[in-house]
Amino acid sequence: MASRGASETSKLRQNMEEQLDRLMQQLQDLEECSYINNFFLYIFFFYCREELEEEEYEETKKETLEQLSEFNESLKKLMSGNMTLVDELGGMQLAIQAAISQAFKTPEVIRLFAKKQPGQLRTRLAEMDRDVMVGKLPRDVYTQQKVEILTALRKLGEKLTTEDEAFLAANASSTLSHFEKVTASLGSEDKIMALASSGVGKTPT
């Protein structure tokens, strides 16, 4: 019975991850059409703006965030009172909440946070450090994404350096700071459920 339960939990997690991947890909496609995140996207940017008008972009993004909210509600119902699922899916729900509130805006960072991949998050950060040094990544994009990655790492229980803590304190947005406050500890059912009912989980209007 225990083996069957573990198998069902594994299948459920895989299903949830596939749904999240689809939604993150939608957001990624939208973001690639809305701003230049490195110099190699310069020409692609103009092509996308012709194909996707501003109003259509905003509407599509709103619909995607609404789908994320619905997905989050499904997770809440699944996890309610089930500590096994809280352990398995709690991190995913925190990542989704970060996306819904727009505390996190980078789809790939959200995806890695949801899948509890601190190693890949650190690899991405190292690549960003290189790119910003050689001018391939704008400083403002670098700052935003680094703050998201450091926040995700901290939520995943990773130790940050003194320099990273200082960077986070100096650059975190008010939305992200609120998200941090509400989600003081990863993996606590009470905290996750409290987050779900707070303003952090509401789709911005």
TrEMBL record:
InterPro entries: ICAT_dom, ICAT_sf, LZIC
Alphabetical list of Gene3D superfamilies matching this protein: Beta-catenin-interacting ICAT
Organism field: Cyprinus carpio
Alphabetical list of SUPFAM superfamilies matching this protein: beta-catenin-interacting protein ICAT
Keywords for the protein's UniProt record, in alphabetical order: Coiled coil
Coiled coil regions, renumbered to chain: 6-74
Molecular function via GO: beta-catenin binding
The keyword Coiled coil belongs to this UniProt entry's keyword annotation: yes
Family: Belongs to the CTNNBIP1 family.
Ranges for domain Beta-catenin-interacting ICAT: 128-201
Protein name: Leucine zipper and CTNNBIP1 domain containing
